[in-house]
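Good morning C.,

I know you're traveling, so I'll keep this short. The sequence:
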Amino acid sequence: MKKIIAGYIAAFGLVVMLLGLNACSTASSKKALQPAALSGFSPQLNVRHVWSRTISKGTSSYYLRLEPVVVKQSVFIPAYDGEIIAVNQKGKRLWKKNYHWDFVTGLAADNGLLFIGTRDGHVLAIQQSNGDVVWAITATDQVLALPKATDGVLLIHAIDGTLTAYSQTDGKQLWQFSQQAPSLMLHLSSQPQVYDKKVICGFADGKLAALDFDQGRQLWLKQIAEPMGQTDIERMVDISTAPLIVDNTAYVVSYEGNLAAVNLKDGAIRWKRKLSAYNKIATDGVNLYATDLNGDVWAFDLKTGMVVWRNQQFKLRQLSGVAVIKSLGVLAFGDYTGYIHFLSLSDGHIVARKRINITSVITTPIVSGDMLYAYTMSGRLTAYRVSKR
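The C-alpha cells, ready to paste straight into the viewer:
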C-alpha cells in the first residue's frame, strides 16, 4: 500500500520536521527554524498590476500545482472544486464552468483542447472555445502530474508509477509504461517531456526514464538519486518536477537527492550536483536556476554544473519554482506569504518584489510575452506587466 505525503508535509512541513529531529529545544534552534525575514533592496524593475481574478477557493488549502495555462490571447484557470474560468489577456471572462470533479493537476493545452486530472483518477478533455467536455477517461490511479499534450498524444503520469499515452481525439489508450512506486512518496509527480521522439519522465523512486514516443518502449532507465537512510522518509528521492531539456540533455532534480545533467542519447550522466528540490527549474540558455528545500535560490552553469551564484535570503520561505524573463535578465518565484520575488540572472541580487495577497504562491509564475501571471492557493490569479526602470 502506497503512502503519500500530502499537504504542506510534502514540502515545507517535512523539512521542518526533519530539521526538528536533530534540533534541541533551545531559543537558538527555534530561531533557526523560523522563515527568513524579507531583506531590503534597491528596486530596478517596474512591476505593474494589470488585472486580477479570483476563482472559487483555489486549491482549498491543499498543496496542489493547479497551474493555469496561457493559449494565445486566452488564460485558463482551474480550481480544486472543479471550476475552470477562461479569460482574455485583459482579464475579461470568456466562459466559466464547474465540472463537479476535484481537480488536482494544472491544465495542459493542445489542438484546441484543455486537459486536466482529478482526485479520483479521471482525466478530462475540454474544448477551449466553450468549456464543453469532449471526453473523460479513468487513469490507473490518481493523477498529480501536469498532463503533457503534444502531437495529438496526451501523456498521463499517475501516482502508481504508470505513464500512459492516450489519443487526444477520443481518449483511447495507445501504450503504457510502468515503474514500481516506493512505499512513501511526495504528493507531487513529474510531468513527462517530449524531445526528438522520446518521452522523458522522472519517477518517485529517483529514476529517470526515456521511452519511445510512438510505442512506449523503454530506451534507457537511469538512477538519479539513491535512496539512503533507515526510515522511509529518509529514503525519499522523488523526482517530482518536469525534466528540463536543452540541446539533447535532460536536467533533472530529486527530493533529498541530486541535480543531474543526463545525455538523452544513452542516459549517461554528464554531471551531478547535490541538491534537494521539488519545484520547477528553468534556464536562460547559459545557466540553470532552481529553488531548494531550504529556500535557497541557485544558479548552475549548464555545461559544467558549477555553482555560479547562490542567494540565501529566503530560508524556509516555501518557494515556488522559478520562471525566467530573459529579456529583462531576471527570474521570478513566489513564496508562502504571497510575494513574487525578482532576482538578477547575473548574480542573484533582489531587483523587485510584489505581493499578490497573504496566501501562498505554490505554482511557478507564468511568463507570456511582457506579462507575468501568478496564482495563489486562495485562487487569485494576478497579471503583471514587468519592465525596466
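Safe travels,
E.
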